[in-house]
Amino acid sequence: MKRRHALAGAALAATLLGWGHNPATAQTFPPPKPVTMVVGFAPGGAADMAARLIASELGGLIGQSVVVENRAGAGGNIAHALVAKGPKDGSMLLFGSVGPLTISPHLMKLNYDPFKDLAPVSGGVHFPNLLVVHQGTGMKRFADFIAKAKAQPDTVEYASSGAGSASHLTGVLLGQRAGAAMVHVPYKGGAPALQDVLGQRVTAYFAAPPTAMPYVATGQLTALATTGLTRPDYMPDVPTVAESGFPGFEALNWYAFVAPAGTPDALLEQWNAAIVQVLDKPTVKDSLKKHGLTPHPTTRQGLADFMQAEYDKWGQVVKEGNLAGAR
After folding, report:
1. Structurally, what CATH architecture does the domain formed by 35-127+253-321 represent?
2. Which of 314, 135, 96, 326 has its CA nearest to residue 223?
């Protein structure tokens, strides 16, 4: 009985998405083998949490297993390079991130080109970073952090989920705007970065809300500011950097779905339809928002345009900071 219900659900999903209307793709989507969704960071961080939630929903929708594979390292670039050379049959997706897709190309020589070797599929989620410090630092306000960074140059360390990540460049952008020199300490993902802030081995971290919010709630960490233009609904008492003396400051973190370039357009469109449908589900929206993540489904072209805008923005930050070649 359960199997018949599952098959009926898959058939309904296929009908809603128009699968099978094109004879050329009817045998290839959903893929006949389990789908791999690659994540460029360690388990336990925002990327991993969001990817696993979405992968589970996608698997149920298409009637095929979608397995999350963590390939941490090099700020996410290892995973992105892997997918860039991956199979072009629709069986591999990348939960790509702002760093490798739009920042790393400005910082270092890569063995892949995110705009040539990866094909946009759909936006995933976006969210502001949350500047947190251990309560033992004694910092209570964002102004305290800036004052120390300016008074004691090169003594305030901030963690990131990797060189070239959004958390890395957010610190660079803030340093440029504030005229403060801070020391960047990269990690292999958000979870290990946060652990060293909790262990007071590094001063601060521009964290993803899902990883930091539980510790803010218990008082172990102090949230000093968020990096969006407006205060998030889930933390209305935490000011933005923009309203704390730096008008217009915005540094969003985001994840989006891409696939190996050369994957047939028909398959990419099918994946886009499936991902958009999942991200539009009220239950998925609620689950993501409880963790401080905002669903951001797009068309394929919409994601391509968004990536280009982010590439241009962060390229200017890298240029002004003379960071090219930095690791």
Report:
1. 3-Layer(aba) Sandwich (3.40)
2. 135
